[in-house]
């Protein structure tokens, strides 16, 4: 038996305790009992001792009575922590705490039939599609685990469909190179009210923007790129690690070669413009890390995003680091690059993600073409009669 502390935003202390008991059932099969939500460590230990006494007396723990939360937490402890990156673990935990734990998480696994699950997902269809698919992902991995260990006999999640509101992509999600240059200019401008020089980190933030724009890398990937990853001779940059920072202090940051997906690891081509920028940056930055502070250490991602967002606001655009990745993909699509190549360059594990962006971007391009064509057509003097007819109909 052992207990572990787990982060909980809703707990008074910011965490709760979970007890784990490993034992063999009547068939000699290894099993694990899990129970969480204890406010004190002593409560978890006392509960664990009671369950151990039951086992000694020959009272087998009823696996069928496990709640969804118990099975999910067990899955994350047995498999999840070895399979997922730290950032993914944080994301899963956030979804679990905010949407599952205090509700359907208390339901017994044996009661979660297809009908019950479908009704649950129908009830949250007003949430964004990103939220509902995230919740479904947690249910899917948990039910697959429960099936593997014998807690359930079938997986009802295979039949469940998920709905949700699709968020309309704003025009500001696409950052033009001119806008990017304006943001860089603001970051490199001396703020005389604060200091009479531009901090080294501000230059690093600019490099972060350029790398994200020209490579389409995710934030954690961009902040982990080193000079060793850059090959000027072959004009390539290797994406092979990411920065782990969620829930850590700056001095605790570290890089891991465990990527988001298998396709995340790749060698990307480097354009001439980015090559020119990096060669100039090398003369100013003596450290191996491309995006670093004045001591060569990792920069704080929240500081980087905050200042980039502030610089974007000054030129009237709403900025998010992922906007640059979206821009990268959209630029490839608008340049006529085929879907397969776009998917490979974006390093998407699922081509459906690429297709969604591809379809949206090409539709906007068609819509713009139609508007430009007919607006210009109706505004010409030679088509005055058409314009008058249009006015007559509308009036």
From TrEMBL:
Protein name: Site-specific integrase
Family matches, as SUPFAM superfamilies: DNA breaking-rejoining enzymes (SSF56349)
Lineage: Bacteria, Bacillati, Bacillota, Erysipelotrichia, Erysipelotrichales
Tree of life domain: Bacteria
Iron as UniProt keyword: no
Similarity field: Belongs to the 'phage' integrase family.
Pfam families: Arm-DNA-bind_4, Phage_int_SAM_3, Phage_integrase
GO biological process assignments: DNA integration; DNA recombination
Positions of the Tyr recombinase domain: 170-371
Molecular function GO labels: DNA binding
Sorted UniProt keywords: DNA integration, DNA recombination, DNA-binding
